[in-house]
Amino acid sequence: MDIKTASSLHRLRLVSAPEAVSFLLLLVCSVLKRTTDFNAVPVMGAIHGVLFILYVLFWLDAWNKTKWSFGAAALYFVLSVLPFGGFVAERKLKREAEDAVIASRARREGVVNA
Fold first, then answer.
1. Strand, coil or helix: what is 110?
2. Which of 12, 24, 34, 89 is the most exposed place for a label (fewest CB within 10 A)?
3. pLDDT at 4 over 90
4. Is pTM, for the whole model, over 0.85?
5. How far is 31 from 39, CA to CA, in rounded Å?
6. How many CB atoms lie within 10 A of CB 76?
7. Backbone φ, ψ for residue 6 (5° rounding)
8. Which residues contact 40 (CB under 8 A, 6 or more apart)?
9. Each residue of 15-68: pLDDT tens digit?
10. Are 11 and 76 a contacting pair, CB within 8 Å?
11. Cα torsion for 90, 94, 97, 98, to the nearest 10°?
12. Is the CB of residue 76 less than 8 Å from the CB of residue 33?
């Protein structure tokens, strides 16, 4: 894995957890808006919107650089719109990056010819 691919995966990982947290907070704010006088939906909606746009941009970049299959790319997108999905995406991306580093070291040391 080259440095550009690794950094695109890293950027996607960095934004996936905050995007998931902002989505959950937006859901909580929506419930509070309906049940109390507390209305933080406009602020939380804007924060979540920015993080979601960043996630989609970084997802497109990672898809382009990693050459994921359509199914893998679709999975990461679907995870972005599910509650707690961003946490699952972050864990999968971390595992994928670690596997790529291990494979790269093995190739460099001549253990495998991949």
1. coil
2. 34
3. no
4. no
5. 9
6. 22
7. -60, -40
8. 29, 32, 33
9. 999 999 999 999 999 999 999 999 999 999 999 999 999 999 999 999 999 889
10. no
11. -170
12. no
DSSP 8-state secondary structure symbol assigned to residue 39: -
What distance in Å separates the CA atoms of residue 41 and residue 58, rounded to the nearest whole number?
25
Contact 31, 92 (CB under 8 A): no
Given the structure tokens 């790529």, which residue do they identify?
Answer: 100
Average pLDDT score over the chain: 89
* Contact indicator for 1, 101 with CB cutoff of 8 Å: yes
What's residue 14's pLDDT? 93
Q: Give the residue, 25 or 103, on which the prediction is more confident.
A: 25
Burial 35-48 (b: 16+ CB within 10 A, else e): eeeeeeeeebeebb
**Two tokens at 93?**
């991306």
